[in-house]
Amino acid sequence: MNLSSNNIEHLLTTSDPVAIDDLFAEACRARDEVYGRKVFMRGLIEVTSHCRNNCLYCGLRRDMRCARYRLSKEQILDCCRTGYELGFRTFVMQGGEDAWMTDERVCDIVRSVKQEFPDCAITLSLGERGRESFARLKEAGADRYLLRHETADAAHYALLHPAEMRFEHRMQCLQDLRDLGFQVGCGFMVGSPGQSIETLKKDLAFIDEFRPEMVGIGPFIPADGTPFGHEPAGSVELTLRLLAIIRVMHPHVLLPATSALGTMHPQGRERAIGAGANVVMPNLSPRDTRALYSIYNNKLATGSEAAESAADIRARMAAIGMEVPTERGDYRKTVV
Ligand code: SAM
Ligand code: SF4
User: What is the pLDDT of residues 222-262, one digit of tens each?
Assistant: First the structure.
């Protein structure tokens, strides 16, 4: 498929349903060739809602006056135990940039999880850190790191973040993670304030060049009380097109059907799979902390048990002809 700059613009803006159906079909073909009809499950554990940053879009930003929590190592291990029983073989530990999460503490958690579950992959998503810190986390056993670049346009980045957050540092972190041997995930919100076709083209060009192992994209959803709390949400349709373009551009990428899509549309995750996604991330966090991890309004599945959400995801995937295997689901360099 032609993914020239002009054609990307056409695919992002056309109202021709045939062109979009062709794009989705091509994306699914590309995915199936590398991974087969499989969707990999990751257990999301929201380890801390404390954050020192003040990203303008996020409900966990420093200036939000809200109840905060962090999970103890025992609580995290309990989430993993529940998840392991349910067939999860990847645990994603995500949280705000919390100074309490020192290298020592995170490494201890990573080592303990690896010791108890040596057949599982650990993904960390704890924001920006220094290269030395990333190196320690890798050494402790972390396999993957998710750090969305948020936008590949420096001026747009400056509009979404306070001045102390530097675009160059975000990009440096991604490069450091790559150099240290992590499977790396970047990504962005679709429809964030200030985004344009031009900034999206830069995002796609960055992904094409960087070739990350994972790309997380989902619609921007306003969060009450943030500077962007009254901005319109991003479009589900545009998110699906972008997922498909990313899959066609980079057939090997691990591409989640994000909860933000599921929040915006009851069939959002199924539709993402139909556009070439191949990862789902049900929430394994303790029920009583989920409501406190409120990145945006009406976050999905706040109350359901881990077992319930895993069963729900399996049923949804089976209904669209996809298998959910009990495996780590690592990045594949070669085709099946
Ligand atoms: N603190 C870490 C970081 O920023 O990488 C990880 C947690 S952060 C909540 C994870 C992702 O949530 C961010 O990369 C951002 O893209 C997304 N996010 C934050 N606010 C959002 C919003 N209002 N709508 C949709 N996604 C949002
Ligand atoms: Fe903190 Fe991440 Fe939210 Fe930014 S996006 S405020 S770093 S939790």
Answer: 999 999 999 999 999 999 999 999 999 999 999 999 989 99
CA–CA distances in Å: residue 124 to residues 172, 180, 246, 248, 318: 17, 14, 22, 26, 28
Query: What does pTM read for this prediction?
Result: 0.97
Give the ligand with the smallest distance to the CA of 228: 1
The finding on whether 252 has its CB within 6 A of some atom of ligand 2 is no
Say if residues 281 and 63 touch (Cβ distance below 8 Å).
no
Distance CA 125, CA 185 (A): 9
Q: For 4-58, how does the pLDDT look when each residue is reduced to its tens digit (9 = 90+)? A: 999 999 999 999 999 999 999 999 999 999 999 999 999 999 999 999 999 999 9
For a mutational test of ligand 1's pocket, the pick from 55, 64, 148, i.e. the residue with the most ligand atoms closer than 8 A to its C-beta, is 148
User: Taking a C-beta distance cutoff of 8 angstroms, is the pair 244, 26 a contact?
Assistant: yes
> Of ligand 2's atoms, which has the minimum distance to the CA of residue 96?
8
